[in-house]
């Protein structure tokens, strides 16, 4: 009996070990430490189209780096994709509703930048609120004081038709009627239908005085010269008119709102 008691536990242990030997629980996996196996199990898998031998695929050649670039070849910067036109100018000169009329947008990209409205440094002895017109540079300055002025581009009269001196803007008018002077009618008979005897031309987008007109007086007398708007934006910066000072319609509206009553004007 003592013999059987000793043999049966040993036999049970042998049977248990034999049954667990298939699970490799007691046998370490020494292959897991193999570097070759680690690379095989962790290397990325790339897509290989069927029938394509990756050893025969030619690499794409390096493209040459351009040394120069043609910026602004289109309406966008080729580097950043930003519009060439200043968005502030787009807002200032876009389509505007004014009174009973709608001012069309001005193609600012076709106007020289120096003739677009902008605040500039301007040293002068003239009082704030004064209008100064530089006929040589085709600029109109509205003096703001503290060394600043709002500058506008203007179109002026041809030689022999311009006026210069110091005067007063006696009154100003929104959407004025245009009545050509007797002298203009004699020079240009085609404008006779709009003469004083016929009541002038009605206000409107094609009226030569545009959206606003400011009438220049000197010593209490009408000089017959005006600061006014124009639908002909291409005349800004040029000397093509019959003597008056032309402004872009959007600019003359802006100046009209800034201008005090009986403002002084200097044309030089």
TrEMBL record:
Domain L,D-TPase catalytic: 129-268
GO MF entries: glycosyltransferase activity; peptidoglycan L,D-transpeptidase activity
PROSITE patterns on file: LD_TPASE, PROKAR_LIPOPROTEIN
Pathway connected to this protein: Cell wall biogenesis; peptidoglycan biosynthesis
UniProt keyword Repressor present: no
Family matches, as CDD domains: YkuD_like
Parts of the chain that traverse the membrane: none
Active site, renumbered: 228 (proton donor/acceptor), 244 (nucleophile)
Keywords for this protein: Cell shape, Cell wall biogenesis/degradation, Glycosyltransferase, Hydrolase, Lipoprotein, Peptidoglycan synthesis, Transferase
Cross-referenced Pfam families: YkuD (PF03734)
GO biological process, one term: cell wall organization
One GO CC term, this protein: extracellular region
Family annotation (InterPro entries): LD-transpeptidase, LD_TPept_cat_dom, Transpep_catalytic_dom
Family: Belongs to the YkuD family.
Full protein name: L,D-transpeptidase
Organism: Rhizobium laguerreae
